[in-house]
Design goal:
Elements lengths: L1 E5 L14 E6 L13 H18 L4 H7 L1 E12 L8 E9 L6 E10 L5 E13 L10 H6 L4 H6 L7
Antiparallel strand pairs: 1-2, 2-4, 3-6, 4-5, 5-6
Length: 165
């Protein structure tokens, strides 16, 4: 199950960056691999769900993207797995938009934390490129993307202190 909101003091402090969008996830049996922990590929699914939730919260749900014939496709992913997640864990996946050129590409930062104790389990940075959905070719951002896919001032100011991925 995934649920998302914008983090505030009531959700969690001590994220890598201020003002994250946070998705809450309960680790499911299907997420567990033969090593008895969450499979690495599942994290990409979590990042994707958090990004979609954040986009919807910004006013760009999937229906709007389909209407605009534009979407964001993953170009590059860097993930650091720090600790395992296991069955029964409640997980928080935070995401932030990072500064970008605002024409074709955007980067997102992710941090995965275990709710109990707050340990960081993984960090990732994913770069996306805008595509025309009908052709799959790169495309410039429509005005709706330029207006909404903007890094917060607090994130831009704190970016220099960001833990490496």
């Amino acid at each position: 199950m995934i649920r998302g909101d914008t983090a505030s003091g009531r959700v969690w402090a001590d994220w890598d960056l201020p003002a994250p969008y946070v998705a809450s996830i309960a680790v499911a049996r299907a997420d567990i691999d033969v090593y008895d922990h969450v499979n690495n590929a599942v994290y990409m699914n979590w990042f994707d769900r958090a990004a979609w939730g954040h986009s919807a919260a910004l006013g760009l749900p999937i229906e709007k993207c389909l209407q605009l014939d534009r979407g964001m496709a993953v170009v590059r992913s860097v993930i650091a797995y720090l600790r395992p997640a296991v069955l029964g864990d409640c997980i928080r996946v935070a995401t932030w938009l990072l500064p970008a050129d605002g024409k074709l590409r955007v980067r997102r930062r992710f941090q995965v934390r275990r709710e109990a104790g707050g340990a960081t389990l993984a960090r990732a940075e994913i770069e996306y490129a805008c595509i025309e959905l009908s052709s799959g070719r790169p495309a410039r951002w429509p005005p709706e993307f330029r207006e909404r896919y903007v890094a917060l001032d607090e994130v831009m100011l704190a970016g220099g202190t960001l833990a490496p991925v």
